[in-house]
Structure of Pyruvate, phosphate dikinase:
Amino acid sequence: MSKKYVYLFKEGNAEMKAILGGKGANLAEMTNIGLPVPPGLTVSTEACTVFYENDKNLTDEIKEQIDAALLHLEEQTGKKFGDQDNPLLVSVRSGAKFSMPGMMDTILNLGLNDQTVLTLAEKSNNSRFAYDSYRRFIQMFGDVVLEIEKYKFEGVLDRFKEDNGYVDDTQLTVENLKDIVEEFKAIVKKERRIDFPQDPKEQLMYAINAVFMSWNNPRAITYRNLNEIPHDIGTAVNVQSMVFGNMGDDCGTGVAFTRNPSTGEKKLFGEFLINAQGEDVVAGIRTPKSIDELSEIMPEIYKQFEDITQLLEKHYRDMQDVEFTIEQGKLYMLQTRSGKRTVHAALRAATEMVDEGLITKVEAIQRIEPKQLDQLLHPNFDPETMKAATPLAQGLPASPGAATGRVYFNAEDVAKAVADGEKAILVRRETSPEDIEGMIAAEGILTSRGGMTSHAAVVARGMGKCCVAGCEMAKVDEELKLFIIGDVRIAEGDYISLDGSTGKVYKGSIKTVKPELSGNFGILMNWADEVRRMKVRTNADTPREAQTALDFGAEGIGLCRTEHMFFDEERIPVVRRMILSTSTEQRVQALDLLMPMQKGDFKGLYKIMKEKPVTVRLLDPPLHEFLPTEEKDIVALAKDFDMQVDELKAVIHSLQEINPMLGHRGCRLAVTYPEIAAMQTRAIMEAAIEVSKEENCNIIPEIMIPLIGIQAELEYVKKVVVETAEKVKEENNSSLEYSVGTMIEIPRATLIADEIAKEAEFFSFGTNDLTQMTYGFSRDDAGKFISEYREKDVLPEDPFQSIDQEGVGKLVALGVKLGRTTNPDLKIGVCGEHGGDPKSIEFFHKTGLSYVSCSPYRVPIARLAAAQAVLKEESDFQNDK
Amino acid sequence: MSKKYVYLFKEGNAEMKAILGGKGANLAEMTNIGLPVPPGLTVSTEACTVFYENDKNLTDEIKEQIDAALLHLEEQTGKKFGDQDNPLLVSVRSGAKFSMPGMMDTILNLGLNDQTVLTLAEKSNNSRFAYDSYRRFIQMFGDVVLEIEKYKFEGVLDRFKEDNGYVDDTQLTVENLKDIVEEFKAIVKKERRIDFPQDPKEQLMYAINAVFMSWNNPRAITYRNLNEIPHDIGTAVNVQSMVFGNMGDDCGTGVAFTRNPSTGEKKLFGEFLINAQGEDVVAGIRTPKSIDELSEIMPEIYKQFEDITQLLEKHYRDMQDVEFTIEQGKLYMLQTRSGKRTVHAALRAATEMVDEGLITKVEAIQRIEPKQLDQLLHPNFDPETMKAATPLAQGLPASPGAATGRVYFNAEDVAKAVADGEKAILVRRETSPEDIEGMIAAEGILTSRGGMTSHAAVVARGMGKCCVAGCEMAKVDEELKLFIIGDVRIAEGDYISLDGSTGKVYKGSIKTVKPELSGNFGILMNWADEVRRMKVRTNADTPREAQTALDFGAEGIGLCRTEHMFFDEERIPVVRRMILSTSTEQRVQALDLLMPMQKGDFKGLYKIMKEKPVTVRLLDPPLHEFLPTEEKDIVALAKDFDMQVDELKAVIHSLQEINPMLGHRGCRLAVTYPEIAAMQTRAIMEAAIEVSKEENCNIIPEIMIPLIGIQAELEYVKKVVVETAEKVKEENNSSLEYSVGTMIEIPRATLIADEIAKEAEFFSFGTNDLTQMTYGFSRDDAGKFISEYREKDVLPEDPFQSIDQEGVGKLVALGVKLGRTTNPDLKIGVCGEHGGDPKSIEFFHKTGLSYVSCSPYRVPIARLAAAQAVLKEESDFQNDK
């Protein structure tokens, strides 16, 4: 039996997203629960895979299945492709497993030709509508299938409007439209040397081809890279019989959310346009009306729509984002899906749904994308500074947060400015998928057209980026690179500030501050804390960082990098004196000067963290990092130190390394200069003893030795640490406890973790370095080829952002397993950047780590991700049973 | 029951080397087969371990066991410690599991004091002997136990000789010796503020302590490092009742080998001294007589000795190195052990013993230390140049080979000269363990005193280093740094040449050539080839290297580094033009110029290797390695290329990397510039097709892609290679086969070897890079701390010399296992430097590799080591059963 590649809507359901795509699966589900969905069929994602395997051609098998499904569709609708009496018209839309809004191409009104347009005019009794549909179809088909530049068609429209003094497309007459259709067909003929295809089935095969091709267009690839969507799952194609929102004033089209996607408020939220079709609403060409107004214009339809949306929310047990069309007074549902929402909205909706009894706490935890929490930490304007600021204009509050930067008018200029270290605001009349790179780079986005569901708004919310949309007061001239609001003229490079939560635009730069965390955040975080097993610590070197992390719920410091203290302006001369010492005595003298400073640093941290664990890593970077490299600095240093310049240069030269990453650093420094480790141990211990007394608490320092690759290294350095620590205890008549552990960041350390664990009381995986060495990638250099690797799909994901489970992860798992064989009580954490990455956190949970440590602003993300990891594991366990 | 730490000789046997040390175990064995061995006891190596655990003190338990064994010894000998009538005198010698000649300290005549010296004089009827023994004892004890500098005692002896006009120690009278004893005791008193201990048991405990302490003296540590002997196994102490070779002219002492240790000839070979004691022979102070002469002086003793040595060789089934003493006409055996021998001797003895039926072929293979074969490859003098050379002097042919270099007179000067890139000859009156570093660094060694078993000779043979010993014609003045032979004066820095096989010394420098490989070598290699499973290939980039390796038995080329061809003087301008190209077109133009050159290189290799496999690795190093770094070279290049200097500098700068080891190189270059891989593939394929035709053979090129860490990298580059190769085949209408494989040198590659093996037809482990990344050691930089690690015993072995089985080896084993799961036919080799290291080769065999590839001169070593690995595995298997 041959494989099934084509499904009627009534043959599918919501579980079949992998095969039918999200859109197709939900259309099938809605069909089957009896909602008014225009009939249609879905060509599966598996057909897309076959298409690419077959050298980008549809196989005969698939074509036959499409033909068969079309026959069904014709029977169902009583219409026929190309029929003079009752022609079938369809829309053709892409729909992958994961939502990729606006990333791929759509064709409407397919089936129109020189004959059926006449029938459509007759049956609708509306020639204008028929010819408007036909010209739209040729335009879309020309763009998407034939790849003729859009502006060629738009230029014709503009000319007609100009010549006739029209402001709006709706003013075009039937005769205008007939002429435009002819001109459009002439453009096709001129550009592609073919007549515009008249056979609807031929049109359809072309269109399906084009949708499949669009899976690999550059914006789709960029979107997938950004959202970590696999490149090999393909898209489905949905072919649906057309309903028309543009047949007159009893028609319309719109989109709505069952709850407010910005705030989470439980109230239908959306927009619609009367007498409009398809992409008109989301494209932001015309500014739509609020969905509330529909209850006034079409009260019955509104009631029906409201009932349907409530049904859908209950059915899916989640906030829905729906699309609908009203054709001559009849409501049709064209799409439903989980609604994208800001983190504010997500938190409010989740906690309220728990209150409503719609979902459980556990489900609420799973509803929040941990990375989204990042948005909470985005700055708001400083209220003091705000007082002095005068708003310039009001737009739509499309994506919350505050942003300040210089304005640029296209994606390229933004990217360039950001690369040069500037903060930029992207200003566009409206955005399109071509602007995606600029949107990623910008601090915030301002558009003069489009609504809350315009491209700019949807994408910005997805990114958690501040956006003010539809600010019609702003006259944007992208060519001249300026915009005008009243009599204020803002040119490229001028500062503006945006408040995405209020929609206000300000001139100049306004100081930003961190937001207060809302009540729903606290509630959800508490639920998460009840569930998670792993502790969450922070990487912090200063009291300020420690305090921030503590406020975000950090349960300790997993990594304090002592070298950051060495770089301090007042200390660096002493550090350099230490490095340039020619004898141990000289070095010890310099270290004696550093000791009280380091002790002060540690006391500052202990005073904040009290009894929470603080892991201090001994000096890690190669010593040459502390020496000057510029000629003038070297000359100055030589003078300071009363050295010959050449002599100093020779010392600096002797410390230089070909591959410093693999050089004399970490515990290797402590083996060569045990006195440095001894000084740092003394500072840690004295600080802990003193703060324990001062604060009347019981501090247990954790001393971490970096870069261990050989068991004997650890033995050697640990001996220095323990001898010093015991001496300090004796001197202070103290019985303070402490523990000594190690970073696991050299591949070899994972392989002999059983040996190392005999000496170490804790492990902390340094997955940054472990990734560098396991891949043989220097982060300092790999940028040059990693971006090329990503483009050529050689590297599906950046291993420095999310841990490479297939490779590096194997070593982590091995290290954990071996370590626990000889030391079952071993405490194991991770302090690389992966400690704040949700996907990595799930892996660390599964691997049995005791804690993750991440930057202060990632602490809430880690808390939630750690809880989700527990739930994921439980549900996997249930599924396996 | 308490542990046994002390054994009488009659309680042990030859199998107990780990506990009794080699010397102790063999003394026990000889005792038990009825040979004349003076009775004694052994304090075990386990006692040494306890000694170090007990803070360098003997425990009471051990002391009690020593006391008990001493009682036995006193009963056995009928003598008593300190007894006025019949005092027991003993020697105290170290003896570890592995022979460490001269590395540790020995004390003779222990038990003598102011009383027993009188008894000894009376009983021996030889006061001179008694006092000479006493002064020797005080001198050794002072040196070894009390650590008083030797020269303080020697100065007294020299003064007495000078004052009395004596030439030789034997001329000292009894009165002289009595005075000397008093002066020696005064030295002890002055230097250490103690009276010389008179209680023999106290002397003994001191001495045992000192021997245990000597285990960790710097020369012992250096020796163990050099010979890869573990540092934690400790030494035993042998306490043996004294026999005296210095009681008169019916006494003597000597050492002998059962076969000639230089040539392997089956004939007793050794030296002795009449009226001498202990270390006199090996210390090289007096030049001894050949063992042949003993048959004339003491024919009966000689006969008895000859019988014993033959018995020992049969008993041990190996050539023996024995020590003996004749006391008043009675022969005593003091030591037997396997004799160290040159590789020439080892090969001859092994093959002859097979002929004699003494050992099997398999045993013969096991008898040769593979590393020793290296000596075979040492240079001899070029016969043509030799004709013009006039010998300056004749010494003893102590260790074969030929050497040329500038003379230096102490170890430090040699080391310095060698560090400066010179070739040096170490010239000493005699060598001592303090000279060991200089001996390692020197090309050859010349001494004016000492025999074939002197320190210099024994150590040089062990190292396979050319040595001429006992060249008495040379008057060496180490202080003035010159030596005089007749009227020729050779000063520091002058060239001389040594022939270690003839003992001849030449003035000036003589050209050296590789030796002919002797018949026994060929016989043994054939036996080895019959046994081994792994193939042996070579790393070769030029026809000359390929030919050398072929002559040594290489079965293919495992690694041809194409970049070596890029560095060629005529090509580098084209290579640079390629690198500086600003477009693919420009780059392809430059590559088109390189292609015929590379093709020529490959044709050269194929013509030599014919159908033997040749693995060509695609370009590996980062491109910046091909660009100039010096200002003047950059200026010249800019001029050549008609570029601005600043522009060129900017390009060079943009290619520089912080960690080039982990940067843009290997397959990463091929992903960025597929055209380079395509050019190289074309060159390889065209060369193979042409040579196959020209030589009428069937060449199957192996194309190797370096630095793979991600499966998709391999897919990407392999596609380029295969497309090019197929195109070349088509163009040439050829059906040539070829295979595409990869280096496994990135840790990650070993972890995903199953994925990689789906695409690769062969793996070649690049264990150099794999070691660098697994340890996080850059070889370019790690020298700075690796030597410190070795000193501090943090690194027991240099992982770049012998593969780190515990860490890196685990990854190799994993890579092999995973690779074979998805590709059971996968051919797997190694082409790092470890491919020529016997211990690593054993590991690679056990791990299931198909072949090793090493430098041409290591090929014979690898052949033998691969055979031994098979035998080792079989014997381990037998033992496990």
User: Anything to note?
Assistant: The CA atoms of residues 425 and 877 of chain B lie 47 Å apart.
